[in-house]
Amino acid sequence: MENEELIKQCTEKAQKWLAPEYDAETQAEVKRMLENPDKTDLIEAFYKDLEFGTGGLRGIMGVGSNRMNIYTVGAATQGLSNYLNKCFAGKDNISVVVGYDCRNNSQKFAEISANIFSANGIKVYLFEDMRPTPEMSFAIRRLGCQSGIILTASHNPKEYNGYKAYWDDGAQVLAPHDKGIIDEVNKINSAADIKFEGDKDLIQVIGKEVDDDYLNQVHSISIDPEVIKRQKDLKIVYTPIHGTGMMLIPQSLKLWGFENVHCVAEQMVKSGDFPTVVSPNPENAEALTLAIKLAKEIDADIVMASDPDADRVGMACKDSKGEWVLVNGNQTCLIFLYYIIKNRIAMGKMKGNEFIVKTIVTTELIKKVADKNNIEMYDCYTGFKWIARQIRLNEGIKQYIGGGEESYGFLAEDFVRDKDAVSACSLLAEICAWAKDQGKTLYDILMEIYVEYGFSKELTVNVVKPGKSGADEIKAMMENFRACPPKELGGSQVVLVKDYKTLKATDAAGNATDIDMPEPSNVLQFFTADGTKVSVRPSGTEPKIKFYMEIKGEMGCPKCYASANATATEKAEAVKKSLGI
């Protein structure tokens, strides 16, 4: 009975898509779904509306209200246009930047969005071809725009596309604007409410001029240009994994002075099908297979990769045995901030008002590095919009010098307000040059950090619970952890519980203090006497609950890594047992 009711609802919804304002191709596909005795496609496409959330849109491409297509993208753009026209009612010339990545339909969706903005009297700066997300953020600030969008699904599988909305500071939208835009998008009832007929006089195509400006600004964050001159032959292997990084990252490395850059030819081909990888995610070893193969052939110093919209960076280096190993997101962030702090101090570039930012689930070793070097550090929620918020709050008062998160995103500059693989790859090359100048590798630098600041092993455990019953289970798990937090983890007493939903931190004696965060969030953290940290949160986009673990240890010497890692791995298993996962 329940299924019949669902089919009825989906049928009624789908029939509205047979109205004349929908194009012939869309109508034909809707008819096919309606006439098909198997209603799976119909239900999947229409059982709900693709939700415009705080991060924008993301979904599988296809026909239907629950898919990425010109109508769902159109509704998002019309809603954003209405909100901009309300928000900046007295302003003569409201303007936006529109960017897109390499994915199938990204350019089409971007051009349709440009038409809709212009049909609503909004000036559009449209990139001439695919470009990295960070450059779109830069362009909003550089061109003095009120908003911007980029069509990308980051490193999702090829079936997906997405739409991210940004505000006038170049950061993804935060309260109150996120809710304001969502309300306007939800008021769009059908294709008839969308103004598709563009005004070409209001659309300006941008490209090389913004590229050059951006690349020059990125070059300005180089800390030690002299070390690059000495190590200009550093052997770099780079792959854009078929994405936007190919437009600017090789160029940026050249501008910084690196003359021995080898790009993975098969992956320097723009493609939304990502034909050479299972998933275009630089966090996965599989996506770096071709890059590591090339690195072995030429005996490279470093492998670097950017995801399709070039905001995340993945890397691999040789370990002490000469084997190629992946550097994880926590280690990446730690290495970047260690280098920035250590070398800004060495070069006399510190003025005393500098600060860094990390997310609450990112390694606490960064706090140790900051404290030892008297640098202020802020903790914020997961997502780069929160790092951007911290930069905005300190604008004109304190100097941002870097920030990142465990999910392979880093931002070394304040003229962009989202994670940036263009500057990260350039700075990574400088770090490797600095290491090589001392006869060391990137791996050696990481080992030195562990010896000086303590060892730390981070791992994420995803517990997947699909469907409605899964969502209920995840909710129950969070409620249970809240009501009965663990007393011990892996044999060590829990000495502090942070609940970001109530914004209270409670110690073992039951004393509660307030947590200073901009809003509540459904995250729990447990800290133990031996330095273990476990963060628990339900995923906002997938049917899973995530456990971020950080296990502390000591490393007496750079060669002690294997034993420290083995001990931490054993401890992690005990912690999992304590958590019941």
UniProtKB/TrEMBL annotation:
Pfam families xrefs: PGM_PMM_I, PGM_PMM_II, PGM_PMM_III, PGM_PMM_IV
Keywords tagged on the record: Isomerase, Magnesium, Metal-binding, Phosphoprotein
PROSITE patterns named among the record's database cross-references: PGM_PMM
A GO BP annotation: carbohydrate metabolic process
Domain Alpha-D-phosphohexomutase alpha/beta/alpha: 51-190, 213-319, 328-453
Single GO MF annotation: magnesium ion binding
Needed cofactors: Mg(2+)
CDD domains in UniProt: PGM2
UniProt superkingdom: Bacteria
Domain Alpha-D-phosphohexomutase C-terminal: 497-550
Family to which the UniProt record says this protein belongs: Belongs to the phosphohexose mutase family.
PANTHER family assigned to the protein according to its UniProt record, in alphabetical order: PHOSPHOGLUCOMUTASE 2B-RELATED, PHOSPHOMANNOMUTASE 45A
Name under which the protein is recorded: Phospho-sugar mutase
Species of the source: Phocaeicola barnesiae
